[in-house]
Every structure is written in C-alpha cells, then in structure tokens.
Amino acid sequence: MSLIEEVDLGTPRSKSETMVTLTIDGKQVSVPEGTSIMRAAMEAGHQIPKLCATDMVDAFGSCRLCLVEIEGRAGTPASCTTPVMPGLVVHTQTERLKTLRKGVMELYISDHPLDCLTCGANGDCELQDMAGAVGLRDVRYGYEGENHVFAKSNSEVNAAWMPKDESNPYFTYDPSKCIVCSRCVRACEEVQGTFALTISGRGFDSRVSPGMSESFLGSECVSCGACVQACPTATLTEKSVIEIGQPEHSVVTTCAYCGVGCAFKAEMRGEEVVRMVPYKDGKANRGHSCVKGRFAWGYTNHKERILKPMIRERIEDPWREVSWDEAFSFAATKMRGIQKKYGRDAIGGITSSRCTNEETYLVQKLIRAGFGNNNVDTCARVCHSPTGYGLATTFGTSAGTQDFDSVEETDVVVVIGANPASAHPVFASRLKKRLRQGAKLIVIDPRRTEMVESPHVKALHLPLMPGTNVAVMTALAHVIVTEGLVNEAFVRERCDWSEFEEWAAFVAQPNNSPEATAILTGVDPKVLREAARTYATGGNGAIYYGLGVTEHSQGSTTVMAIANLAMATGNIGRPGVGVNPLRGQNNVQGSCDMGSFPHELPGYRHIAGDAVREQFEALWNVKLNPEPGLRIPNMFDAAVEGTFMGLYVQGEDILQSDPNTSHVVAALSAMECVIVHDLFLNETANYAHVFLPGSSFLEKDGTFTNAERRIQRVRKVVTPKNGMADWEVTIGLAKAMGFEMNYNHPSEIMDEIAALTPTFAGVSYAKLEELGSVQWPCNEKAPEGTPVMHIDGFVRGKGKFVVTEYVATDERTGPRYPLLLTTGRILSQYNVGAQTRRTENVVWHAEDRLEIHPHDAEQRGVRDGDWVRLKSRAGETTLRAEITDRVAPGVVYTTFHHPDTQANVITTDYSDWATNCPEYKVTAVQVSPSNGPSDWQKAYDAQARHSRRIAPAEAAE
Amino acid sequence: MIMEGDPFLVIEGMTIAAITVGATKGYIYVRSEYPHAVEAMNAAIAAAKRGGYLGTNIGGTTQSFDLEVRVGAGAYVCGEETSLLESLEGRRGIVRAKPPLPAHHGLFGKPTVINNVLSFAAIPFILAEGAKAYADFGMGRSRGTMPIQLAGNIRYGGLFETAFGVTLGELVDDIGGGTFTGRPVRAVQVGGPLGAYFPRALFDTPFDYEAFAARDGLIGHGGIVVFDDSVDMRKQARFAMEFCAVESCGKCTPCRIGSTRGVETIEKIMRRERVTENLALVEDLCNTMKFGSLCALGGFTPYPVLSALKHFREDFVPAPTTLQAAE
Ligand code: SF4
Ligand code: SF4
Ligand code: SF4
Ligand code: SF4
Ligand code: FES
C-alpha cells in the first residue's frame, strides 16, 4: 500500500461541452472550453510549476511561476488564468521561462526559513518541490534584509515576525513560513463559504489574518480544514502531522458522523492515523470536509473506550471484565431464559444508524431469524421515519430524490427545519457556493439559523412558530394554486389528476391562505407569498429539509405537503430540483434500507407479504414470523408492563436520544437483560447487564449509505482495538444463542443483501471498488446506480397528492408553560456527543445552552450566562441561558449534546401519528432563574457514577 | 483639471459611451486627494440630472444612464483597472488576473467599460468634429492630443496640451525653458514615477507611444520630471524600487518581495558592496519583475531602474581611480 496521490490539476474543471484543441509542447490536446492552459497541460501530463493555483479554487494568478509562452502573443501569460483557445501553440518550458521562474523562486526563498529538515511539511511541501522543479541553486539576496522569518533581525526585534498561532486544537498557523499565495483565504471563501480569513497589510507586509488579526480559535473560523488542505507549505499544518510525521500509506474510507457521507483518505503511518484528508473523488463532498470528519476522530483512541467485554447480574453491581466467550454465553443464556419465561416476543433489538449496512442487516437478521420475532427498530425512528412514510406514499420510495451535485444546478433552494451549516456542513458549503453564484434561498425555521446569516447570502426567512409546518406548507400551496402557478402539464402527465384536483380545491380554501394562517404560524403573509412565487417560478426549485420537519406530531404530513409542492410546481425528476431529506446520522438511510423497522424486511418490503418473506426464509433457512414487531416506544411500554424483558442495543444511546428520559429509565430498569454494544459506557449502559465493546469505523470493513442514497465503502485501516469488528460480535452473540451465521467478510453479507433486495441487486464490493460509490436503485436497469430519481415517472406510477390538514399538536402552551422549546444541534458536536465530547471539539461547545429572546429573558429576570430551570410537563433540567434574538419571542432553543443537560428529560412522548417519530421539536416549557443543577440531574449523576464502576481484576485469575 | 474645470465634458463622454454599449450605470472613481474634483463632479452630475441629461429618458429619449462619484482611499495601485474595480466593490484594492477582461466580467461581474478621463473627454470632440479632425493631430499610431505636465527642476512648469509628435527636447528646452536652477539638464523622467529616465542624448525622441517604446521608455500619463546634473541616479533607482514597495498591493511575488529586495540590493550597491554581482542581480530582478509581475506597477518599475543603469552607469560603478585607491 502506498500514499494515494491526487494530482492537483491547478484549476477547477470546466463544465462546458464544447471542446477546444490546442498544441502544448508539441502535443495536441483537446479540453472543454473554459479550461485553463495549466489544466490542459496537466491533463496531458505536462506539469507546469505552480504555487498559488489548486483545483479546489478558482485561479488567482499571484505566484507567477506558471508563466508560459504562446506563439504569436507577446509576454509571458500565467497559464492558470489564461483559458485555452483553438489553435494556440503553447510552450511551457523555454530559456526565458526558466530564468523567470528561477527569479521568482529566488525571491520566495529569500523570505523563507531554511529549516526544511526539521519542518513538519518536509516531504509534502510544494515550495520545496518548486525550488527543485525550477533548479534553484542560490539565493543571492542574502538573509539580512527585511523578512518575516526571524524573531530578531540584526540583533533588533523584527516587527514583521509573528509567533505561531496554536490556538486551534487541530492545526497550527506559522506565519514565518507563509508565502502569501492566498490559497487558504480563497479556500475559506470559495470552498467553505465562511470568509474567516483575509490578507492584512499590503505589499511586503501582506500576511494571512483570521478576521481582524484575531487568533484562529477566536475568529469566525469553523475549523473545516479547507485552508490547511489548500496550504502548499507548512504554514497551516495539522498538529498530528507535526507530532507524528508524514504518512506513508493511505486508504479511502467514509466519515462516520453525518448523513453527508464525506469520503476521506485515512493517511497512515503503520497502524497510526496521521490525518484524515477529504478525498476529491468523493462524490458527496468533492474534496471538502467539516471539523468532525476531518479532525474529530481522536475518540477512537480515547482512554474511556472500553475494549473488554463486561457483564453483571444486576445494574447495581460493578462491571466484571470477562472473555468474549463468557460474555456471549452469559448474554445468550439470559436472553433465551427470558424467552422461556415470558415468551418468544419478550426480547428484541435496536439497530444503529451509526453502524454499517452489513452490521445492521445482521442485527435484524439475528432478531427475525434468531430471536424468532420482529422486535427490531432503529434510532432512525427518532428522526426520519416520517420521511420514509411520506415519500413512499407520494412518490413511491423512501429516500431523497437527488444527488448532492444537483445543488449546482438549483436556482431556488428551500431549506425547511434544517440547519445544514451545523448539521450537514459540507452540504451547506456546497449550497452556499451555489447561492453566491446567484441562486435564491428561502429558509423556513423558527430560528434565524447560520444559513440565514451566512456571508454574501441573502435569504428570505419565514420564522414560523414551532409546530406549524403543515400550515405554512399549505399556505405556500394556496398561493401557488390560487395565483395560477401550478405546472399543469407536469401534473397532468405525471400525477393522478383527480387527486390533484381534490388537493388543489383543499389548499385553495380561504382558511388556508397566508393571511388566514398567519395568526397560527406567525409568518408575514407578504413574505410567504413572495416565497411561494419564487419557488414556483424562479427556475429549478429544490427543497431540503431536516429534523425540524420530521420530529413533529405532524412530521409525516409535512413531508407529504413538501412532496405536494414539488409535484405541483414540476420540481421533480431532473438535476437541480427535488425533495431531499438531510439525514442526521451517517447511515440513517442505510439502516432504514436494511430492514430495521419492525414491519419491513430489507428494501422496505412488508413482513406480511408471503412472497417476499418466503424468499428470505429460503435463504435464511428458518420460518419467519409474519407479524410486525414492536416499535421502540412500544418496547418501552411493554417493558414497564413487564412483558418485554431483554434488549440488544447496537451502537445507539437510546437513553439520551429518545424522548422523555424518565420513561426510558423506567423501562430499562425493568428489563432483565440489556445488552449494550458500543465504544463507550454510554448512558444506556448504566442500565445494562452485558457490555460488548464495539469497533470504530476505522477498524472495520463495510458500507454506509448517505442521504443521497449513495453506498460508499468504509475500510478497515487499523486492527479492531477490542479484538472484533461489530459484525463479528453480532455473529458471536447469534452463535451463542444457537443461530449460526457464516460470513468471512462483510462483502459476503453485501452479496446476500444484493440477492434479497431488488434495489441493491447490482451492488457488490467489486462494483464499489470500480466506481467508488453507487446510488441505489442499482440493478439491471441502472447498473451504475441512480443519481436522480423519478426521471421518467414516479416509482409508484402516478405521483400522489395527499390532502394535508393542519392539526395543532397536543403540546400547547398555556399559562404554566408559556414558551415553546425546540431543539437542534451545532457544528462541532455530533448527535448525543458520545464521540465529539471525547475530542478536542469541546473547545467550541463545552455545554448546552438555552437560547432565549431578550424580551422573554428580561421578563424572567434572566441575564446572559445565568443558570435557568427549564420545566415541561414531563420533567425539568437546568442549563445556562444565552440571550439572543436569533429566536423569536415565545420560542426557546437548545442543543442536546451533553448528558448533563438531559434536554430530553423535558421533551414529551407525543409523536408523529403515522410513525411514532417523537415530537422533539415542540415542547411547551417554562423558564425560570435557578442556582444550579436540578435534583433530577444530581440523582442521575450519582446513579451514573455508581453504575460505571468496573471491578478490579481479581489477582487469583 | 478637466473634472474641476469642465466636468460636463466627462459626463457627456461617459454618457455617449454608455449609450453605445447599452450601459445604464457609470462610476467615477476619484482619489480622496482631489476634493475639488469630487465636489465639481458631484455638482455637475446633480445639475445634469436636473436638466434631464442624466437619469431616465435622457434628453427625452428612451435612454437611461446614471452616474455616481466614488471616492477611493488613495492607493496608487487602485489606478490599475482591475484593482479599481475591486475597490469599487468595497474590497481590498488588489489586482485581478486577466482574463476575464473587465469588458466581459467587470464590476460586480457585469461587463464593464473602463477608461481614464482623457479618453472619455475626447469623445465629444470626436463625435462633434469627426474622427478625421481628431486624427489629424498627432503622428504614427498616436493620434490626437495629450496633456503633458512639465515638472521637477524646470523653469516654466505646468500643464500643456499638444498634439503627439513634438520631441522631448522641444518640450524640455523650448517650452519648459531648461532647468530652474540654470544648471544643465542631465536626466528627464517621462511617464510618471514608473517612467524611464532619458539622458540628453535621447532628446530627439518624438512624443509618440511607439517611439518611446522603441527606446525602452513610455509615455504613461504624460508627466515629465526634469533633473539637473546634481542628481544621483542611484538614489533615483532606489526611489523607484521604494515607490513600488510602498504602493505594491502585494498580490504577486515579483512585486511584493522583489521591490523590497530591489531597494536592499541597490542600497548594497550604494554602500559599494560586491557591486558587479549586485548590479547583475538588480538586472535579473528587473527582468523577473518586468515579465513576471501581474500588473503595470511591478511590471514598469524596472523602466526607471534599468534606464538609470543603462544611461547613467557611471553613477553605479565606482570610478576607476577610486577603485584603484581602494585596492
Ligand atoms: S479552517 Fe475552514 S473556516 Fe477555518 S479558516 Fe480554514 S477554511 Fe476558514
Ligand atoms: S497560509 Fe499557506 S495557503 Fe495561506 S497564504 Fe500562507 S502559504 Fe498560502
Ligand atoms: S460530519 Fe458530515 S459533513 Fe462533516 S466530514 Fe463527516 S460526513 Fe462530512
Ligand atoms: S505588480 Fe504589484 S501592484 Fe501589481 S499585482 Fe503584483 S503586487 Fe499587486
Ligand atoms: S499558479 Fe499561476 S500564477 Fe500562481
């Protein structure tokens, strides 16, 4: 294995389809119009020296190394900024050019330290490479002149010198090595869209500066790493590279954090990860990353990670470390015992959206075939089950319609109940790039999110009251229908016309108008009308939505309302349009696809369907139960009732992520055997009897499926620290329970999935190796996968319009609970924070805070930073307040990354009518000043400490 | 001076240009050092609007054109057309690489016509009197007239407008009347701070773009600065590099680092350190800057330096006698 070298072609790819032919160094080259001479030469295999150009950002033309000569033209134009023209005859290496390049390099090196041997970038420095490429042998200017290199010059303090900035936990900025190529500045603007960097000073004084000469940590920087990746020198370098040294081999894998599914090169030295570098061929991320995937992988080596299996009789006991075999047989005996005592259906399992497709598949197989019931559910229940239901009903598939590339062709983007800048950062960057090119943005969210406030983006913001999504969507439809903006040709051709007419008549009712619904929704009718017109008539309209849509009592209804809008305006079935859920966790899509729901076998096929079930029975060689099993909330209810006693939880912290924490605690405490399979002693493990250590994404092979249905490989780069990959653990547990599953490698599991699931029929590891990734459906009809769905018609046949009546949630504010709480997440932390809290990312988000409007805060005598009590019908917690007008009066907002906060202690167990997806996004609450943690928090903390004890190993053994 | 004295000429020229290309918005970028010009232009624009010569339906036609004066903070490099555009857009005044040319992708990404006052002010005359009348002035490919500023050590300084073609000698000796100090003229810098120094031997050069270019000089904005025989050309060469270092936008390497190194190296020559090697280094540096720089600031700085080296080399290499004495 060696380091994967990605050739930097210098300038971005041109999308033109017109080809231009020219001659470069005597070679005929044909490239798309708009390509730079530099890229054309590089594609033809002729490397032109360069320092300021990189194919991630537009050409800039500042270093002047890439000069070329063109026959018939005077001067020496820069090849990075000069586009190709038909018939040009270009020379990239002449005596004149050689002299010029040497002259430029001599200048560079006259203001650069000569400590290459001890420099962190030694071996990976473009400045070094270029000095070699142009044959620089001498720097005649000497080193006594003005410079940025030495702290002292001629025994005087050198005012131009700046010390290293080590404030960012993951990378350093050493100004003395900076060649002022601006690649970092441009990467921050063009790739990331944050505009945190600038060049301060002019002329010789020019220096890279975060914000107004702030530190990186103190600036707007979100630590995405784009600048570090763009930097050709050691100026911006990963601390891990400085510590460890340059990597020697690399493996392409997929980020295990969010549903964007960024591809990375894990750059290794032996079995040590040196750094994770976003992979340019990754079709989801196109070479970009966010702070989580790029830097926050340190949790895989965290000291709190549990590497040995542990068991205990009672949750009051300390843990006892045992061998794998003992743990498996202990667990198997308990589970089988429960089934004997309480019946076959008294146990079940929960699959994880964090684990691979193969692992999820195995867990549901173990439950259906090994446990003999269908009590399998997934944490996607708590986020995106309404997506599955809503889109399957209207379009016929439970997935987003587009690939992420589609955003490059979008003209109007509607973002509903999602804050991609925090939760799907790389998608947000791609979106912002498109917005800076002129696409319009409509944001429907109670809170003024980072999307609304991002630089050089103007958004139409519809700040609705939490819980009124359906009313707003219907009002948008009202405008589209009553103002005659429906794309009738599309609807007649693609959708069921009579259903459409029924729907149109419904939305056109005066009580659905923006003016009539404004009292409920709080949205200015004028703004709403403008938004509707823009979406319907502004060109390609695309809708992206997140948990703010699904985690509501009317989650499924909103998803269908969104689908209705897209169909009515013809915004479906081609690049640039569509309906796209932004999936929270990395493998939400995959875990749903893999049959994680109690009623569905892999590929969303109902368990009651005899033909489908028989197919599985034949291959698995068992009889399957045709009755759907229990959903997570039903499992908890049954546990409290005493009929559900054993649970296998893989890679999910249900205690922290499920609503109404006290109910979950009661349910878990009632069970006789809880098996937690995870990296850490998570909160659920406090109530567990068996702990099976998990393996991180760096330690196993498999696949993840991202929010665009893209199946990508996860590749093992280090040996599992716990000794077994997760799929092997599940096989071990199954075996102990008397159910044999024989696989030597996850690829064999994928082959079985492909054999049983029509949409995966064409998927194999060999194909993934060849294509990099595929988007399902992948079968004979679409052997290379399907980037955009419903192109020639909907999967279900005719698109189905569904009447979406607004029903207010049962969760209402009143005198006792006058505020509405809504929850969300922030960039540097992920989900319940089990991973990110165990990395340096804590510097950005040490605790959860409650955002409250100045007006509401003042009424309650709450000042910024005060402890406040947050109380709902379900419970109470305390946390600190942050006063901001990002939220409207009457609305409060918090994140749920830290277990101390236990935001879910106060969320209720209301849920989506169709799918039981919990209503996280609306809870009526009261806020009052407080002195510190609540009694509940203290009691919880004490229990957790007690429960995490591990008995010291006995000397006798 | 045109802006202060006859701002309507500029407005008229710009309006004609705008109608020709279909532009509806014009900007006049003035450095803050010219408050009178700003005031005069603003007053003239207001008057033109009142009179219906700017705004919508100019002079009762369907044409519309609006003008706005923007005051720049006064960086020399903002005179370069692309950094002027950056500055107008409210960013740091740094040079953009071309292509794309401003005519395709200019201010706020829109196609932009960008010219100096001189060109716009010439338009009304050309349209009124005809192209031939204008072309009758001048010589070769340099047609029309040029305002010339006579300055420095000169008896009759000031601004003169004359047709192209008069010789440098006529300008300095006949119109300017020689030096103010009465000492002999030794060097003349033509074309602003980045123009070449010409010795008396080149006084037969006609004022014409091509003729000057043929002798490694340039006409630039038409400034002429006269020096008598007391001038030290090493200082002048150093000054050119220093000017470049001070005004450099810092985008491209040859100018950003080169100008500072140029000052340092010329200072070494002034201190008589390794003169031959350092002279060769300055020449190499000038080559790098001239052909490597992104814009004319770095690209033209070599003109004063190289011309000083070429025509006044005696100032740089120590006289043989001193050399012997030193050894
Ligand atoms: S890490 Fe990202 S956000 Fe921070 S300065 Fe670099 S590019 Fe900008
Ligand atoms: S920090 Fe790196 S990328 Fe940025 S200007 Fe300096 S050398 Fe270039
Ligand atoms: S967390 Fe999401 S956006 Fe960030 S690197 Fe991972 S997949 Fe990409
Ligand atoms: S030559 Fe000087 S002023 Fe011009 S672009 Fe380069 S650094 Fe800027
Ligand atoms: S690579 Fe073209 S100027 Fe720097």
Automatic annotation (TrEMBL), chain A:
<dbReference type="InterPro" id="IPR006478">
    <property type="entry name" value="Formate_DH_asu"/>
</dbReference>
<dbReference type="InterPro" id="IPR001041">
    <property type="entry name" value="2Fe-2S_ferredoxin-type"/>
</dbReference>
<dbReference type="InterPro" id="IPR006656">
    <property type="entry name" value="Mopterin_OxRdtase"/>
</dbReference>
<dbReference type="InterPro" id="IPR006963">
    <property type="entry name" value="Mopterin_OxRdtase_4Fe-4S_dom"/>
</dbReference>
<keyword id="KW-0677">Repeat</keyword>
<feature type="domain" description="2Fe-2S ferredoxin-type">
    <location>
        <begin position="18"/>
        <end position="96"/>
    </location>
</feature>
<dbReference type="GO" id="GO:0051537">
    <property type="term" value="F:2 iron, 2 sulfur cluster binding"/>
</dbReference>
<dbReference type="InterPro" id="IPR017900">
    <property type="entry name" value="4Fe4S_Fe_S_CS"/>
</dbReference>
<dbReference type="GO" id="GO:0008863">
    <property type="term" value="F:formate dehydrogenase (NAD+) activity"/>
</dbReference>
<dbReference type="GO" id="GO:0015942">
    <property type="term" value="P:formate metabolic process"/>
</dbReference>
<feature type="domain" description="4Fe-4S ferredoxin-type">
    <location>
        <begin position="169"/>
        <end position="200"/>
    </location>
</feature>
<dbReference type="InterPro" id="IPR019574">
    <property type="entry name" value="NADH_UbQ_OxRdtase_Gsu_4Fe4S-bd"/>
</dbReference>
<feature type="domain" description="4Fe-4S His(Cys)3-ligated-type">
    <location>
        <begin position="96"/>
        <end position="135"/>
    </location>
</feature>
<dbReference type="GO" id="GO:0051539">
    <property type="term" value="F:4 iron, 4 sulfur cluster binding"/>
</dbReference>
<dbReference type="GO" id="GO:0046872">
    <property type="term" value="F:metal ion binding"/>
</dbReference>
<keyword id="KW-0500">Molybdenum</keyword>
<comment type="similarity">
    <text>Belongs to the complex I 75 kDa subunit family.</text>
</comment>
<dbReference type="Pfam" id="PF04879">
    <property type="entry name" value="Molybdop_Fe4S4"/>
</dbReference>
<comment type="similarity">
    <text>In the C-terminal section; belongs to the prokaryotic molybdopterin-containing oxidoreductase family.</text>
</comment>
<keyword id="KW-0408">Iron</keyword>
<dbReference type="GO" id="GO:1990204">
    <property type="term" value="C:oxidoreductase complex"/>
</dbReference>
<feature type="domain" description="4Fe-4S ferredoxin-type">
    <location>
        <begin position="212"/>
        <end position="241"/>
    </location>
</feature>
<dbReference type="Pfam" id="PF12838">
    <property type="entry name" value="Fer4_7"/>
</dbReference>
<dbReference type="GO" id="GO:0043546">
    <property type="term" value="F:molybdopterin cofactor binding"/>
</dbReference>
<dbReference type="InterPro" id="IPR006657">
    <property type="entry name" value="MoPterin_dinucl-bd_dom"/>
</dbReference>
<keyword id="KW-0001">2Fe-2S</keyword>
<dbReference type="Pfam" id="PF01568">
    <property type="entry name" value="Molydop_binding"/>
</dbReference>
<keyword id="KW-0479">Metal-binding</keyword>
<keyword id="KW-0004">4Fe-4S</keyword>
<dbReference type="InterPro" id="IPR050123">
    <property type="entry name" value="Prok_molybdopt-oxidoreductase"/>
</dbReference>
<dbReference type="GO" id="GO:0003954">
    <property type="term" value="F:NADH dehydrogenase activity"/>
</dbReference>
<dbReference type="Pfam" id="PF13510">
    <property type="entry name" value="Fer2_4"/>
</dbReference>
<dbReference type="GO" id="GO:0022904">
    <property type="term" value="P:respiratory electron transport chain"/>
</dbReference>
<dbReference type="Pfam" id="PF10588">
    <property type="entry name" value="NADH-G_4Fe-4S_3"/>
</dbReference>
<keyword id="KW-0560">Oxidoreductase</keyword>
<keyword id="KW-0411">Iron-sulfur</keyword>
<dbReference type="Pfam" id="PF00384">
    <property type="entry name" value="Molybdopterin"/>
</dbReference>
<dbReference type="InterPro" id="IPR017896">
    <property type="entry name" value="4Fe4S_Fe-S-bd"/>
</dbReference>
<dbReference type="InterPro" id="IPR036010">
    <property type="entry name" value="2Fe-2S_ferredoxin-like_sf"/>
</dbReference>
<dbReference type="InterPro" id="IPR009010">
    <property type="entry name" value="Asp_de-COase-like_dom_sf"/>
</dbReference>
<dbReference type="GO" id="GO:0016020">
    <property type="term" value="C:membrane"/>
</dbReference>
<dbReference type="InterPro" id="IPR041924">
    <property type="entry name" value="Formate_Dh-H_N"/>
</dbReference>
